[in-house]
Specification:
about 140 residues; alpha/beta
């Protein structure tokens, strides 16, 4: 198993105070130092989706300096700064994918890979819905 270890997010609805920032930075360094001996961790993630995000460049560098042997992602799912080693985007599927599947364009202009990708997304959504529903019923 390969792990992308996220720093726990701060609030997304307010700018962090100076005390919040100090606490966040101390905890990030402590988390990295306490967990860097685990070989399954392949990357540190400073911010998740930009929640509580501030001084991204400096904090990404701090994470890299604390453990230079690992990759660092500055903001998983919300890459808005040109720093870090990885760019990843979060795409959340929902009921809209079923609507798109039902209304898909089956003309010659639509490629087979477009149809295959949309079908796969619809099947994944339906499978996840079935799993979530069966767990909720238990």
């Amino acid at each position: 198993m390969l792990v992308w270890q996220d720093m726990p997010s701060m609030r997304c609805d307010a700018q962090p105070s100076p005390e919040d920032k100090q606490q966040f930075e101390e905890e990030m360094v402590r988390m990295i130092e306490n967990h860097k001996s685990f070989p399954c961790i392949v990357q540190w993630v400073v911010f998740n989706e930009g929640w509580g995000q501030y001084e991204t460049e400096r904090l990404t560098e701090l994470a890299k300096q604390t453990d230079p042997s690992r990759l660092v992602c500055c903001a998983s799912g919300s890459q808005d700064k040109p720093v870090g080693d990885i760019i990843d985007m979060h795409v959340y599927l929902g009921p809209v994918v079923l609507l798109l599947w039902e209304q898909q364009d089956c003309s010659a202009d639509a490629s087979a890979s477009d149809h295959s990708l949309l079908r796969s997304a619809a099947e994944a959504y339906l499978a996840w819905t079935d799993i979530a529903t069966s767990h909720a019923a238990q």
